[in-house]
Structure formats: structure tokens, C-alpha cells
Amino acid sequence: MEFPFFHGKITRRTCEELLSKKKKNGSYLIRESESVEGALCLCVFFEDIIYTYRIFREPQGYLRIQTSEGVPERTFKTLKDLIYTFEKPNQGLITSLRYPVKKPNTLQRSQKFESGMDSIYDGEKLSSAFVGILRMMTLTGLW
């Protein structure tokens, strides 16, 4: 399965530049968190502001996302399920996910997992914890 909106290890600033270029409410991408090891960030553009929601891997293998205050926490079996849910309105994000922002062509590579190894990370330095999480997600069918 491919996730062209997954940008891997990019900075918050790069993320903001990519989303701001689109200028469309509901544009989004996913990147690795710079401040929380092993977490992902779902970044969403709305009314000239970038909103960031952290995605955590639970010990049971599920994904948990931090949404708006007062909204009950929810868990998801796969990243695909999470995205599908938040494409619908009024699910706890500032706006629904409408426009995935793909990686620039110069950076985009196959994002298919093959035998536990993710070809997108070949030659890139990522935290071993995050790579381990992605491998575990792949092996358990959660990615």
C-alpha cells in the first residue's frame, strides 16, 4: 500500500511551506515528529494556520491520535482507517482531510513494504525506534 502523503523525516518548517503552497483548507500530510521520538504528526492546513495532531503507536498495536480538546480519544487499526475516518466532517480535527499533499517528485520513492524492509528509508538516517515501529506495523498488517 502506498502513502504518497507520508513525507517521513521533514522539518516542521518544510511541512508548513508545503502545506502553505496549496492554500487549500483540508490539505494535509504526515511526517515524523521532531520532538516526540516514535510519533507521527498529521499536519492540516486551515485558514492560513497549520494544525498538528500527533499519532502514537499503542502497545496493543493500535494507532491513537490526539485531536481537539474535549473529543474522546480514538484508536485505529491502520493508518488507512485513521485517514478514512478524518476525511469525514466533524470527527475532532479542525477540518476534514480533503487534499493529500504528496512528496515532491525528487523525494518520492516507492512506499511499499517488502519483507519487513521499507525501500523508502534506504540510505536515509531515521531513528531506530521509528523504523522499528514501521516494521512492526507492516508485519502485523497495521500499515
UniProtKB/TrEMBL annotation:
This is SH2 domain containing 1B. Keywords: Adaptive immunity, Immunity, Innate immunity, SH2 domain. SUPFAM superfamilies: SH2 domain (SSF55550). Gene3D superfamilies: SH2 domain. Transmembrane segments: none annotated. Residues 5-101 form the SH2 domain. It comes from Cyanistes caeruleus (Eurasian blue tit). The gene is SH2D1B. It comes from the Eukaryota. The keyword Hydrolase does not apply. GO terms for biological process: adaptive immune response; innate immune response; regulation of immune response; regulation of signal transduction. The keyword Transmembrane does not apply. Pfam families: SH2.
